[in-house]
Fold:
Amino acid sequence: MSHSDEKMSRHPKVEEARDLMDRGRLSRREFIRVAALVGVSAGAAYTMAGLPSPSFAAGHGNMPFPADDPNAKKGGILKVAMQIQKMEDPATYSWVEMSNQTRHSLEHLSMTGPDNITRPMLAESWEASDDLTEWTFNLRKGVKWHNGDELVADHIKFNVERWTDPNLGSSNVGLSSISALVEEVDSGEKNDDGSAKMVKKLRGDAIEVVDSHTIKFKLAKPVLSFAEDMYNYPTAILHPSFKAPFSDNPIGTGPFTLAELVVGEKAILKRAADHDYWGGEVYLDEIHYYNFDEDNQLTAFASGDVDSIYEFGVEQMELAKALDGEIVAARTAQSLICRMQITQEPFTDKRVRQALVKSVDNAAIKALVYPEGGDVAENHHVAPVHPEYFPLPPLERDVEGAKALLKEAGKENLEITIDVGNTDGPWHQTLAEAMRDQMKDAGIKLNINVMPPSKYWEIWAKTPFGATAWTHRPLGTMVLSLGYRTGVPWNETAYANPEFDAALDKAESILDVEARKAQMETVERIIQDDAIMIQPLNRPVYTIVAKKVHGYPAHPTQYHQFNKVWIG
Structure:
């Protein structure tokens, strides 16, 4: 193909992005992300931006994995300390840990690397229409399931139909791409007030299977991030024979299969027997996950029981520095969202919510809980690490303003309880205790109900006031779509604001980074002003790896993708 032909074949958004980059309105890394999303190979996108492809991403062809290491040794067992959880239905997973137990068996249409660039995985390529309302995915040929079946487009259709089944309750319907495939219809049932109960269902014309390895999605609105959405952890592709629990019949396309699962004890993955894996060389024979809570994973590493851990807390940093291992840190959008469910008293009153927010000093709490690393958050769940983040004016604590709002609402001497599960470690409780001490000054009594992590996840979407850990997503718009759009399954605040939904839709359609950030100012202000959460910080994540382990990827979402890890 000639240079001119190649240019003519590019999506118009690539040329628009390149022009914006040349004019300084789009960073080179953001250009790479956009170009890759609309179908340019990551290597070509790096070249167009004038940047070298990072070593971890210098794969061969259009593979999502790094290139083979000529020094790599085959064989061995990688042992990792992590909470071991149930593996029921990957489409309804709500913990990264259970997805890590699954990720080497089940794979995704795409894969977003540590550089925030999305590459083809089970898909070989994709194309978007000029207006970003039609997305065509071309599947790799010859990808086999563990039972010998070949992956075909009907299998992808089966998965998307499951995700959009209102009876399943998959969080995937909150993704911008998937939400654009559904429509609201009358369920035939009535609400308590007698009105029709509406549900979101897949539109009849939303999916077209073009041929055995080509599938087209027809969206009701433009979405740039369709391919990026497909690496959200509940979007793992299941075999059409799937019946929950996955652990009972773990058919996947990945290099490993689940050999043994004992919840709360261990998950053993072994190379899938007689499986002709599409993804090239894989070095490890087995991956063993052993159950340790966050506060004692580092101890397990120190004793030599494991080669790596899911994470350790900031309070353990000095111990980690004293150990013979490599500390891996990542700046992230991970956060603890102390959210109020606005359909439950006393949080139905916006004045009460605003008073709680005003009584807290986010910066002081961040300095106490994470003195090194991380960012002060602004109560809108978009982080400075997100490319579209707009910095709002720093929040200021206003104790007298909080008192005045409580008096106006008739809630002086307010007493409330926050449920805390310490699902990412004891820093959750430390943060809640700091909030409690600050709220006292405004006459608010905050009780802290500390519960086991597993118990918290049973009630996280129901509790009136809860401290929920949210993992990193590459985009702020992605996390806002998952957590705060009207009616989506992970909307734990019960927030429903059409103005917010429309503003978020608009932000997602804008390519010019300066214009998108300007629109995100509106999005962030709406959610901040509605005072549905107290979010003091975005935290860094830390893990540690034995020096004998090579090629261990650092991912801000703590996704484990060990295809090219080896032990020497």
About this structure: The CA atoms of residues 91 and 234 lie 5 Å apart. Residues 1-8 have pLDDT under 50 and may be disordered. The longest strand covers residues 325-340.
